[in-house]
Amino acid sequence: MFFGVPEADDLIGSDPKGGQIVEISGPSQCGKTYLALKACAQKELPLWIDLDGTFPYVYAKKLDLVDKIIIFNQFDQIVTAVSQLLDSTHPDIIIVDPTHAIDIRKRMELYRLLFFHAPRLNIPVILVSSGTDQNRVSSMAAIRIEMAPVRYKGNKVIYLMRTIKNINAPAWKEASFAKDIE
After folding, report:
1. pLDDT of residue 174 exceeding 70
2. Residue 59 half-sphere exposure, CB side, CA atoms within 13 Å?
């Protein structure tokens, strides 16, 4: 299981192969970061590149991730620092959240670095992007998942998603999953 959410795992068909890029996009508060955290919970040594200083510690604690996740949030020399981190640590998944939080030049340098290291290290990368992010890397992503605004039903929140692109399985599939409101 890649995400640890059966509906999302069925949606993408099979686990992304090492080095493949998964883009999760959608409006604010639609479950993108939650889905990325669930993917981290399935791994032994996840690396979370927190580009805006808003890592969701509350959710990470509920998923027992706080002690095992590597959170990187040095913004100044991000490309150099991430390169050094990848050379010294071998994470089994990389999350970049949110992708629009740094300027386009640094963002493209970071993407080039990740696209180089991910296949070499045989690890998947998840890019979390907002629906308004005009500089998405959609053409480079092997799998693109688009999240819709959440819906509420009783004491549950319903997450809606669909695949826009999937080189491992048919695209344009839709799915939803629910979780209790906390």
Report:
1. yes
2. 16
